Amino acid sequence: MKLTKKHNDLNLYIEEDLIEEIGAIALKHYPNEFGGFLVGKYSSDFKSVEITDVILPKKYKSTPTLFLRSTDGLEGVFQKLFEEKQQYYIGEWHTHPNGSSNYSTTDLDAMIENANCETVQIKNPVLLILSITKSAVRDFTFYYYDNEKLISYEQ
Amino acid sequence: MDFELINSTIAAIPFVKKINSIERREFSIVGNVEILLEELGTPLTFDFQINSEYPLKSYDSESINFSNKELVSYNHVMQNGSICIHTSHSTSITEKLRIDFNALKDWIIKYVVNKDEDLNYEHIVVTESPINDTYYSFMFTECKESFYKDELGTVKLSLFNDGILRGKKNFNFFIQKFVPINGEPKNCQWNQYYNKQRAHLEGLYYYIEDAPVTNGRFAYTNWSELNLPQNLLNLLHQHEREKREKLKGRVIPLFIGYKTVGTEIHWQAALLEIGKFPIKGVPEKFNGHKTGKWNTHLVDTEIKWGLTRNSSYQYFFGRGVFSKVLTEKKILIIGVGAVGSIIAQTLTRGGCKYIDFIDHDIKEPENVCRSEYKFANGITSKTVELEKNLYEISPFLNSIKLNDNYFETLIKTFYSDTKRQKKFIDDLKPYDLIFDCSTDNDLMYVLNSLKLETDLINISITNHAKELICAFHPNIYNFVNNQFSNVLKNDVEDLYEPTGCWNPTFKASYNDINVLVQLALKHINKIISGEKAKNNFVIHEADNSLKIVEF
Amino acid sequence: MLEKSTHLEDVLKSHRMTHIEGLVSKHKSKRDEIKELLEGNYTSDIYSPFNSGSFGKHTAINIKFDLDLVIPFKRNSFDTIENMFNDVYDFLYKEYHESGIATVRKQKVSIGVLFKADEDGDAINIDVVPGRELTKDTYLEDRDLNIYFNENTWGFTKGTYTKTNIQAQIDHIKARDNERKVIRLLKIWKNTNGEKYKSFLLELLTIKAFDKATISGNDWEKLKGVMTYIKDNITKDDFTLKDPGNSNNDVVKSLDTWTRQLLSNKMGIMIQQIESNAENIKSYFPINEEFEEKEENSSSSSYGLKGSSVGPSIPSNNQRFG
Which of B165, B465, B141, B427 has the alpha carbon at shortest distance from B309? Predict the structure, then answer.
């Protein structure tokens, strides 16, 4: 089933199966953090975005409280995705093992830097944080980035 | 009346062994029959009289009468020996005769053969008679205190409206209190309104404990039967002597008290006329010589019994009340216009004991046609008149005078002040149930926003009394507004505009409003007694019947 | 005609916690203050305190929410659960009550700290729930806690305790977006109508409905699906609602037959009234007018692009997340 997240009049759609898939990947890395990129499509009026897939980093560093991802080796992937499927990079995801799905200041800083990056075409990237334990995804929250702020979609 | 038909029908009744006599009179047929039942060793004879109304009843009594003076000690026999039977209706003489004779047979088996005792207490049979062509009636309630055998004292009585009884004047009194010769007064359990009335008359009482009767239920007819003790005779003498000068000819009651069922006490009033007490002074003699002292002796004359009624709560409301959960509640009614005053009066008649009300409005003559106000009271404050009207209905209603401007000024001025809100909640806390019948949206909003600890019910009516809307706290403001503005088609054009610059009001008659309010109260009574769920509801007319729609 | 689903969306919007951020942050700072005090006092006797209540579960609505703080004590901290409960009470009483900062009182399973109203008239209320792990060093693994009953409640007697797993209760509802929406709506109904049903019951009913019945469609259809499920099932003799915190605790048992029948009837009446006239939905699920969103102030217009047309983005390299 498709989940809908709202922020004011903006929508974010994602299939529950995809969330489950992300969770399964995340649990494999427990107790370390893990993450990647969100890709999807915007509606013609740019009121809605649908997350259709994730891309995993080829190079990354992770500990229980830190996740550093690289885009090395992925440049072509993003280009190809756009050309062949008209899908874009729309944001980031990562886990907080044994922590909440609230964003940290590190997360906000990363999003600011990312949004300001020249190669990023979008103003409002999405951030997904999953709170996980050893055995399960406890919670997840989507954030909408706008003007150096992260605002959670409605719960 | 068909004499032959009656004669042959009676003769054909199997247990009528013999018709000893039967004759036609001007307005009746009289006779004597012998009844033999298997259960009876020897036959019983009864005189009978069939009146010209037969087979119809007249004055609530059968127009056939059976009597046998020798059976007077059995249950349901009057002093003259007539048997008290009530039977089914029939317009056929033959059928009715069979019914009535069978009723006689049933009475014989139940009371003569089986000597049954009735479960219900039956009051003693008293011949109530006027004195000097005037009746005297006395209402009383149980007192909290008990009475002991041979207790004597005075009784404070208040007079209320005169009545007419059997064509004669009837003075109506209620007993305020019994004051023992030594001891604290014992008050009747009326409300404050009756308790505060001035005492107009003083009577006497004597608690005899056992019913003053012969044959188990016929009140004594003569003073000597009462066996009044010497100290009571002395008291009577003293009382008469004190009052003779000023109050000669005045009638005072001597209340004779006795146990009925359980701890209940009933009082009969033997009427005494000052100056004509049934006593006389007899010189005391010692060894045949007068000692110079006088003793009071009884003069045996006929007792004139007045009317007495135990009007305690359980009898006053014996025929039907709201559930006890509701009648015991402390109730506040806000707004006593058409809807509020009907609610107040219905609750009062339904046995509610504590109802306060608040309204700043004045009653005008044009309010009378659809609310519980009377033209006779003229222009007056609504709450003042309503209190009076309700007290006239129930001597058990207690109502406290409130500040009629409480909601208009206090609550509305300070409703958003959090500290005051706490006080308002406390002010309303003594109530278990509040009816808001003010149809005041502002007040509805204010009350709804308070975190009340008491039940609040809002009742309003749409124009032309098409619907009644009843909502429970806390979903009042939102619900009622949504009903009025979005769900129901309330007509706000065709309103009644009183002359002058008044608020327009909805159009509806007393009948329109009352039928809705009564149904609503019936439902609310069920909700309060736990029989129905506490859901908001709307009553509306559909297919010529009223329907309660729950939300 | 009123679009039921749109209305429910507006209802949810107007009940969002973000409208009362100031009040929420006051709560949070008081909660953090209590948490630090308790951590300072009990040091190594406790595990890390965590948030529960509707706020912890993301089912809060701005007309009624609670911030609960669960304090997991280690097995050897107190010899009895009762002593633990009383000690936390005594500590908070001394810290807050005696100094006149707040009223501290024992509640059903928690200790309530009600702060005096501040200059805005806000009286912050934080409930502290102490619990003790079942056996030594097992809490981090199983999250089970014994909690104390200070009153006869939910079928338990005062002075006894029960095993529960508040974390499991929180997890039970996490990542369940559609369910949370319905739960919030049912809580709005509960508050609007002054219904006595516990929020926990409504939560479990909603989750079970989603699990057992086919609940889909727009917001109204989902809500209606859940209400229909409750109406049809709550009165069944074999209906159970397992407490995710303790599988031996059947939450539906706390309701007698009459109360279950009433709940079923209420659901039936609501569905019927709303279906017969959409306007009736406002009687049960009103917009919180204090925070009703007007059309004109929808500021976030769209997902923005830096340029005029869409091109592929390459995210910044070597980005560090925490």
Answer: B141
